[in-house]
Amino acid sequence: EMQLVESGGGLVQPGGSLRLSCAASGFTFSSHEMNWVRQAPGKGLEWVSYISGGGDTIYYADSVKGRFTISRDNAKNSLYLQMNSLRAEDTAVYYCARVYLQYFDPWGQGTLVTVSS
Amino acid sequence: DIQMTQSPSTLSASVGDRVTITCRASQSISNRLAWYQQKPGKAPKLLIYKASSLESGVPSRFSGSGSGTEFTLTISSLQPDDFATYYCQQYNSLWTFGQGTKVEIK
Prior knowledge:
The complex is a heterodimer of chains A (117) and B (106). Chain A is mainly β and 117 residues long.
């Protein structure tokens, strides 16, 4: 069974940093593009970042460009999101999701990031 | 950037009702559209891809249609398990989600 499990969320002060991880299993991780998507409390879904299977192509949403860095370790079947200069508006549940034929399937269960003093 | 607009934002319906949700793209996306269902505290679940293709395991009461800029998700006979929030997503140029449609009990 395919599974994605996020970790690393928590409470951080404005201006702080946090690193999220996503552990993948049940499929050939290195063959699949991956994304991060977030959802602020009570709000809709927002695409955050994309990385190709080999890690050589990366995209970011304008809202996080220059502050967030996506990466992956195919040997460890893991996806990461390094988040720096965090703001209150970055408070959200962060999901990792596999790209399957351009849409997202499956998704992880999410990890909550709260940016507050 | 491609913007996606869903309507309505909230929909009140009863079990057995036929329900239709609309999603409009700010420019043509061909049929590169997916629909997801999300329940409170859970991750989104893929329902429909390529505008009208039903994901394996999804009940046949769900259907999708449209191409270009206008798309619909239809639930032919609403069941208790279908009360949730539904999102459209374009994947023609990166990815953008609609703002969501909450289907609630009337």
